[in-house]
Design a protein that fits this description.
six-stranded antiparallel beta barrel; alpha/beta; five-stranded parallel sheet
């Protein structure tokens, strides 16, 4: 029996580079792949995406593994960039990394691996894949602490999980850097990206204007009674719980409480107004069970950096559910993911309505 083949997604960073290294050490036939999500002009200008190909290619050469670049610009534009723009214009706050994981890092990479007859794909995520007693696969938290990435992987399906390897799950970030140094990998000390890869300047509204060729339309800041408090720059500039950048004089600071895209109004309130104990969830993907039949006690995270809080998840049918927290949570934001945990593994997750 020959060695199993694994296609490893390589971003040019230390995590995916060490993932490829560890898998080769474990005896797999490793193939490195970088997915090109940008156009040639951007690459020629020496952006981070261009350097990703160069760095990943050098690492693959060091490891002595085949390396390829596949073009997924169209898929990335449709499933990540377009989604990002559409969600902001609906008054939501999207999470493009979750969309990229589902449709690009898994959707396209699995398609490529199946086309060449590979057994698995692998990524440099800090998470573990486990198989539960009921036969279902799920994501379990890793040894990486705050670097754990289980939250952004909740949308993967059973087929994707069954054909994925995550070799970094048992390591911390510093341990991975040490492995890279000992292996002599050039990227051992490379800094990690904290930004949305296609908006390095953090100007989300500016990106939307450039991509669409349309200026953000100003509207009114209002209070709960509909009184006009001032004029805003366009709903694309705001998210729930935001305080900075409102530029409204007041005795007590205002916070964004609600965004109404139909009238382009942004509702403001005091600090207490952005707390709630009830969250409605759409497009739920259950990992630990096929379907939730009755209310279930779980722990939920409403954003990546959220510590998590105890709640009851109540199924409503049609991929929807109600989440009732024991205590009120701050800035529950439509468009973001809410991910449910049982013990240390992902029970499921969905999109906040």
């Amino acid at each position: 029996m020959g060695k199993e083949t694994v296609v490893t997604g390589m971003s040019g960073g230390v995590d995916s580079s060490v993932a490829a290294y560890l898998l080769k050490e474990q005896g797999y036939n490793v193939i490195g792949v970088t997915m090109q999500t940008w156009d040639g002009k951007e690459a020629q200008e020496g952006g981070s995406c261009a350097s990703a190909i160069e760095d990943a290619g050098r690492v693959a050469k060091q490891l002595g593994i085949p390396y390829y670049v596949i073009d997924v610009q169209e898929e990335f534009c449709r499933n990540v960039k377009r989604y990002f723009i559409d969600e902001y214009r609906k008054g939501n706050t999207p999470n493009p990394c979750i969309a990229c994981n589902k449709y690009i890092k898994w959707g396209e990479l699995l398609k490529y691996s199946a086309g060449i007859g590979a057994d698995y794909i692998a990524t440099g995520h800090y998470a573990r894949i486990i198989k539960l007693g009921n036969g279902r696969y799920t994501i379990s938290e890793s040894a990486a602490g705050k670097k754990d990435q289980a939250y952004v992987l909740y949308s993967l399906d059973q087929n994707q999980l069954a054909h994925t390897l995550m070799p970094l799950g048992d390591y911390t970030k510093e341990e991975i850097r040490n492995i890279a140094r000992k292996a002599g990998l050039e990227v051992a000390s490379k800094s990690e990206s904290q930004d949305i890869c296609f908006i390095p300047d953090h100007d989300y509204a500016g990106f939307i204007e450039r991509e669409t060729g349309e200026k953000c339309i100003p509207g009114n800041f209002i209070d709960d009674n509909g009184n006009i408090l001032g004029v805003h720059k366009g709903i694309e500039h705001y998210t729930i719980g935001q305080r900075k950048g409102l530029n409204l004089p007041a005795k007590q600071p205002y916070y964004v409480k609600k965004i109404i895209p139909a009238t382009r109004e942004v509702v403001l309130g005091g600090a207490d107004s952005v707390f709630t104990d009830t969250v409605y969830v759409d497009n739920i993907n259950y990992m630990a069970v096929e379907k939730l039949e009755k209310p279930h006690r779980l722990k939920a995270k409403i954003r990546y950096a959220h510590a998590g809080a105890e709640c009851e998840l109540i199924p409503l049918g049609n991929g929807q559910a109600e989440c009732k927290f024991n205590e009120k949570q701050r800035a529950v934001t439509p468009g973001q993911a809410v991910v449910f945990y049982e013990n240390s593994y992902v029970f499921g997750g969905g999109t906040i309505k």
